[in-house]
Amino acid sequence: MEPDVGATPKVSKSDEEWRQQLSPTEYAVLREAATERPWTGEYVDTKTQGVYECRACGAELFRSETKFESHCGWPSFYDPRDTDAVILREDRSLGMVRVEVLCATCHSHLGHVFEGEGYDTPTDQRYCINSIALRHVPKA
């Protein structure tokens, strides 16, 4: 069940290259698994149709059709673009067990996924994603 996150990502850069490309806050979230404060992210309330890409590598991760109001303070989606868009791995940080969501293309940290919370979505999953890990591309 645990994906091979030890495999080389399709987009691979040194820490220095990532630091040059990303702002310090983007680097902290995407490369060091930090979390932005709730209700501060650019896409929490975005309803514009389009796709959400990885801010680090540009891979398409989520579509606006799967975004929903979870009232948790971060953008929430019930399904990634396809099953190959993200990698899920166990996260035992902060004294709890969660499932971390990583970009499958560059292995950047995106957020966490939760199940069984009672949201009325087709998957009963909530991909709780940091806005700063995403870039929204509006539908033309």
TrEMBL record:
GO CC, alphabetical: cytoplasm
Keyword Oxidoreductase annotated: yes
Entry's EC annotation: 1.8.4.12
Record field: catalytic activity: L-methionyl-[protein] + [thioredoxin]-disulfide + H2O = L-methionyl-(R)-S-oxide-[protein] + [thioredoxin]-dithiol
PROSITE patterns: MSRB
A GO term for molecular function: metal ion binding
Gene Ontology BP annotations: protein repair; response to oxidative stress
A Pfam family annotated for this UniProt entry: SelR
DNA damage found in the keyword field: no
Cofactor (UniProt): Zn(2+)
UniProt-listed InterPro entries: Met_Sox_Rdtase_MsrB, Met_Sox_Rdtase_MsrB_dom, Mss4-like_sf
Keywords: Metal-binding, Oxidoreductase, Zinc
PANTHER family cross-referenced by the UniProt entry: METHIONINE SULFOXIDE REDUCTASE, METHIONINE-R-SULFOXIDE REDUCTASE B1
Full protein name: peptide-methionine (R)-S-oxide reductase
Organism in which the protein naturally occurs: Saccharopolyspora erythraea (strain ATCC 11635 / DSM 40517 / JCM 4748 / NBRC 13426 / NCIMB 8594 / NRRL 2338)
